[in-house]
Amino acid sequence: MHIVTAKEMYEIDRFAIEKGGIDGRILMENAGRAIVDQITNLVDNTERILVLVGSGNNGGDGFVIARNLLNKGYEVIVLQLVADEKIKGDAAYHKQLFINFKGKIQLVQEVTVVEQYLSNADVVIDAMLGIGISGEVRQPFKQVIEVVNKLEMLTISVDIPSGVPADEGVANFTAIKADYTFVVELPKLSLYLEYCSPFYGQWRLVEIGLPHTTFSQDNLIETWNQKNVVETLPKRNRYSHKGSHGKGLVIGGSHTMPGSVAMTAKAALRSGSGLITVGTVQEAIPSIASYCMEATYISFLSNEGIITGLPAIDFSSYDALAIGMGMGRSESTASITKKVIVDAKIPILIDADGLQHIKGDLPLIKQRQHPTVLTPHPGEMAMLTGYSVKEILTSPFKVSKQFAREHGVYLILKGVHTIISDPNGRQWVNTTGNAGLAKGGSGDVLSGILLSMMMQNQSLNDALTNGCFIHGASADILVSEQRSKQDLVATDVIDGLTSVFRTLI
Fold it and tell me: Where's the YjeF N-terminal domain (predicted)?
C-alpha cells in the first residue's frame, strides 16, 4: 500500500477528476458516506453529534457526513468556522445539499460559543483543516483545537486530525488528538512519524474509488504487510539441505556481553539459516554455546575479554555475515570491523557497536561491491549523520533516503514504524511490532532474523522487509496470546518465531 505526501494526494485527486472523469462532488460524497459507515459502528443514534467544518475538501466531507448522519436519524449540528465566502466549489455544493435536507448550520468564530455547543454534544467530528495545513494553525482553529482536546468526548477526525502536518519535517504543532481517524484512500506520511501518529488515535482507511495508477515506481514509499510476506517468503524445497539455506557468520560479543551474539545466532537459526558460526572471544564461547548449541564457534584473538584480532577466516565460505553486537567500542574492535568491511566479499549487516566503528569511515562502505545493511536506531542514526535525534524523528524518511543513496547502503531505521530504505531511493514501512520490543536485545534478535533472510532465495529488499515484519509479528503474537508488553523480553521473540512461521506458511 502506498504512503503519500500531501502533494501526491492532491495529484491523485487531480488525475481522477481531470483524466479519469470523476466529478469531484462524487468523490466527496463517496468519502463522506464511507466515513459514515464507520461512524455508525461506533456511535449510537441517541448520541448528539457536533461537526466542525472549515473550508476546502475537508469541510466539504464534513457536510456530506452531517447530511448522511441526519438521514440516518442522528441529531447533528454543523458549526461552520469560516465565513460563507470561504466555502467554495464542491464543498459549497454539499453545504447546500445539507441545508436542503433541513440540516442545521451555525456560523461561529467565537471560541466561547463553540464551547457552549461542545458542552451539549456527545461526539465531535473534526472536518476543519485537512492535509493542506502548513505552518502554525491560525485562529479560531487553534483555540477550538485546544478546547476540543480538553474535553472528554469521543473525537473523530476526517482524513487527518486538524493541525497535524501531512508531511514530515514539522515537530511542533497544535492539533486535534483524535480517538479515531478515518483516512481517505491512502495513508499520509505523518501517520508513520513518531511526533504525529499519536494524534491519529485508532485509524482506518476508507476507499472512495481514486486511481492509484499515477504512481511512478521511483521513490515509492510503501507499507509492508502480511500479504506481501506470504507472496515473497521462499518456500522450503523438499530436497533442500542445510547448505541450501545459508551459511552465516556472526562476529561480536565480549567477556561481559556474550548475550548479544548469542541471541543473534539463535534468532538466525530459528528463522531458517542452515548453518551459523559465531566468531567471538574464547571467554564467551562456553556461555554462548550453552544457549545456542546448534552454532559452531571460532575463537578470536582477545585481550581482557575484548576482541583484538581476527584469526584466519575464509569469508568466501559464508553467504553473509553480521558484525558489531556486543563487541565494545575500543580502537582494536573498530579496526576489526573496518578490516571485515574491506576483506569480506559477501553481504554484510552492521549493527550496534559496529555502527560506532564505521562512523568516521563511511567511504569504506561506499567502495564495497557487495551489499551492506546498516540497522541503526535514531540515536545511532544521529551519530552517523550529525543530525540531532529530534531531526531524525521529524524527518526519518528524508534522512534515511538521503543516507542510503549517498552511501550506497540498505538502511533499516528502527523505531515504532521501522523504515527500510534501499540505495535506489525506495522505502518501506514495517507494519508489525509493539512497545514490548522496547527492551535490550531486541535489535540483536532482529539482526539474526535479517541475516537469515539475507541468505534465503529472495531479493535483498524482500529479505529485509520480511525480516522486520517477522520480528515484529513474533512480538505481536506473543503479546496477544502469552506475554504482555511489560514482561516480553528479546529471547521470547526468538521463541515466538515458531508461531509466526506456522501462521505464514
Answer: 9-216
326 is in an annotated binding site: yes
**Annotation-wise, does 209 bind a ligand?**
no
The CATH architecture to which 6-215 belongs is 3-Layer(aba) Sandwich (3.40)
Residue 492 annotated as binding site: no
Q: How far apart are CA 223 and CA 207, in angstroms?
A: 17
2 is in an annotated binding site: no
pLDDT for position 217: 56
58 is in an annotated binding site: yes
Is 135 annotated to bind a ligand? Reply is yes
Residue 276 in marked binding region: no
**pLDDT tens digits, residue range 232-260?**
999 888 888 888 789 999 999 999 999 99
Helix axes 56-71, 24-39, angle to 10 degrees: 50
Side by side, the strands of the sheet bearing 221-224 are: 221-224, 427-430, 419-421, 410-413, 372-374, 348-350, 320-323, 247-251, 275-281, 296-303, 306-309
User: pTM for this one?
Assistant: 0.95
Specify whether the CB–CB gap between 267 and 447 falls below 8 A: yes
78 is in an annotated binding site: no
Which pLDDT band, with edges at 50, 70 and 90, does 213 fall under? low
416 among the known binding-site residues? yes
Is 495 labelled as part of a ligand binding site? Answer: no
Is the pLDDT at 422 greater than 60? The verdict is yes
The reported pLDDT for the residue numbered 454 is 98
How many angstroms separate the CA atoms of 191 and 212, rounded?
19
* Cα–Cα distance for residue pair 358/350, rounded to 1 Å: 9
pLDDT category at 221 given cuts 50, 70, 90 is very high
Alpha-carbon gap, residue 237 to 273, rounded angstroms: 14
- How high is the pLDDT of residue 219? 63
Listing DSSP states for 239-277 in one string gives: T--GGGG-EEEEE---SS--HHHHHHHHHHHHTT-SEEE
Class of domain 225-504: alpha beta
61 is in an annotated binding site: yes
Q: How confident is the model at residue 427 (pLDDT cuts 50, 70, 90)?
A: very high
| CB atoms inside a 10 Å sphere around CB 218 | 8
Is 179 labelled as part of a ligand binding site?
Answer: no
Is the pLDDT reported for residue 484 higher than 80? yes
| Residue spans per domain, the chain | 6-215, 225-504
**237 labelled as ligand-binding?**
no
